[in-house]
Amino acid sequence: MERLDFQGFGGIHIAGTAFGSPDNPSVLLLPSHGQTREFWYGSAAALAEAGRYAICVDLRGHGDSAPSPDGQYGLGAYIGDLRTILAALPNRAVVVTAGLGALIAMATVGEGAPDLVSGLALVDANIWVEQAVAAHMGRALASRAMEFDDPSQIIDAIAAAYPSEPRPVTDRIMAAYARRDDGRFYWRGDPKALASGSLPEFETRLTAAAARLVCPVTLIRGSLNATVSSAVTEKLQALIKGAEIAEIEGAGHYATSDREDDFNAILLDFLERKAPRQALAFIEGSEPRVLRDALGCFATGVTVVTTINEAGEPLGLTANSFTSVSLDPPLILFALARKSANLAAFEKAGRFAVNVLHIGQQPVGGRFASRDVARFDGVDWAVRGEGGSPILAGSLASFDCRTHAIHDGGDHLIFVGHVDHAWFEPHRDPLLYFRGKFRRLHFA
């Protein structure tokens, strides 16, 4: 085991524990309401033995993670936390989660972060929580905030919330509690985090997010779960394209721990089929994301390509599809998507510049990749020489070019430029792009 620390939404501290090697495919295990990351340790150990890198984290306000500074625990904050954690992992993770965690995962991935995951294993997922059921679940959560004289009272309180289900037997429930000097047990977290319920008010939002999921999904439930029926699970399956269902017979809310071997068998089978450890293969006509991920294994530099439009205004965008072509004559190229709003301007300009970014220019790379900002605002740039294109100050290297040729490149056009001038800084290191993230050189 290795202790990990993440920065969540707003810089909040999120505690984690990792099992296995970070060189292996990542699996992120996210607990439900009232649980702590230790709840997943048995599954994480099994995943590590199966060649996975398993990371267990605490939700904000739970366990060793920091509480929300404003005392609020809305869906947006949880989504922000999950996005930042996934972005910090060494590769695209499969997210394994239950209850509230399942809602967070569906919203995070369905609302704009599909490239951060390679699959979802959702336990006891229920979007359509009736108000009466939500109130009951809220009372059950509130009981966790009580103080107890001994562990049996804790198990009694949890079992009383779901009397028709098998009594929980897992010792991992106790990981969410600590013992004070007076011998009494108390829940490890911010009591306000238990008051946010199961978020039924987000039904419309979550339904829309679930319908947009495109990654492999399995829906897992205990067959005796009193609040997540088989009909509800089938309704969710119909909403998520290609989703699978797996049931653990004779189990209730705590199927993942009380029936851990059964759960792990289901999970590992799903992973080996949908996110295999062996090399993925792309065949023409299959999922283009697989090809994109394969291409993302080639580390590149990061450039900002610029020109001047017919109105005399500077245009620019971030690109990593740049390469040298020839020294005699001096030719370079970059590729621009046919759907780019700037395509016509680059075709008409007859000139462009390629600015290679250094490690200190990551904010510049992000700015010129964004659609929602005036990209040149606050950026130091100049045109060097008559008829030139914008050169970004301080770049690692800049190439001012005349357009030599434009070639068909499928869904891109390939712009070949004849280099008229070049400038470079030999004492800086490049900003890199690898597997969908900005990177920096590591010197051994």
From TrEMBL:
Gene3D superfamilies: alpha/beta hydrolase, Electron Transport, Fmn-binding Protein, Chain A
Residue span(s) of domain Flavin reductase like: 295-440
InterPro entries to which the protein is assigned, alphabetical: AB_hydrolase_1 (IPR000073), AB_hydrolase_fold (IPR029058), Flavin_Rdtase-like_dom (IPR002563), NADH-dep_flavin_reductase (IPR050268), Split_barrel_FMN-bd (IPR012349)
Superkingdom of the organism of origin: Bacteria
Annotated keywords: Oxidoreductase
Record Pfam families: Abhydrolase_6 (PF12697), Flavin_Reduct (PF01613)
PANTHER family: FLAVIN REDUCTASE (PTHR30466), FLAVIN-DEPENDENT MONOOXYGENASE, REDUCTASE SUBUNIT HSAB (PTHR30466:SF11)
Similarity section: Belongs to the non-flavoprotein flavin reductase family.
Protein name as it appears in the record: Flavin reductase like domain-containing protein
Organism: Sphingomonas psychrolutea
